[in-house]
Amino acid sequence: MQTREQETNLRRFSAGALAGKLGHLSYRHVHVYSPVGMTSVVFTYPLELVRVRMAFHSRVSDQSTGNSRPSFLRAMCVIYREGAVPSSAAPTTTTQMLFERFPILKFYRGFTVTMVGMIPYAGTAFLTWDFLRAYFFPVIDDHSKRPPPMANLAIGAVSGAISQTASYPFEVVRRRMQVGGLTRPDRWLRWGETMRAVYANGGWRGFYVGLGIGYLKIIPMTAISFTVWQGGKSLLGV
């Protein structure tokens, strides 16, 4: 995308969705770097799953006396040993065979939800950011005044709030699937059954449990991220 006149809301959303978690890229380069961003998620996702498991085990430990908080290596060992080979009396499922042959797959529970959830999160954030900046600070020529830092913070905060709201149901489903190895270590938890379980427990509100805490994290993070990005561009004269 070469000019501001060619930017549309659909293109803003698509560019943000392609960028994913890689960072704030220009429209003309996002299609080149988006595979890199997705590749980075492939390599870092096991760490995210271990982090979630450690937090879950810590909560269980607080409720049960005598259980120590898990270390990083201990949490990894627990995940690695999930879905052990069943007894000869029980039939072996395809998932169990995959877990036995490729134990690394156990560290990717909920991975598909993460990849899909990147689309509404990053896409909505970029769409809101560019739309609000174009609306309140339209670019007339090369000498147009750039938004001040406080304006960037405000627009970034709104972008973070909207993107978090749009993508939060995916996060709830992902967390359920990530800890699913504790309840069903022999197989994957599917999207459908996970979503039905969330809905059965809390209705549609169940997909937004903990959203307020998510706001406390995402809103300042997005606001500061966009503002620093713009500040860096101004400093470098980009």
Q: Which descriptors apply to this entry?
A:
9 helices; 67% helix; Mitochondrial carrier fold; 238 residues; elongated
Output mean pLDDT: 79
What do we call the CATH topology? Mitochondrial carrier fold
Low-confidence stretches: 21-34
Series of secondary-structure elements, N-terminal to C-terminal:
HHHHHHHHH
The share of residues in helices is 55-70%
Total DSSP E strands: 0
Indicate the CATH architecture: Alpha/alpha barrel
- Specify the biggest β-sheet: none
Alpha-carbon Rg, integer: 21 Å
Q: Name the beta content range.
A: under 5%
How many separate domains make up the residues? 1
Derived from helix and strand composition plus strand pairing, the structural class reads: mainly alpha
Which quaternary structure do these chains form? Answer: single chain
What is the 3D form?
Answer: elongated
Question: What count of helical segments does DSSP give?
Answer: 9
- How far apart the termini lie comes to 16 Å
Task: Using the coordinates above, name the CATH class.
Answer: Mainly Alpha
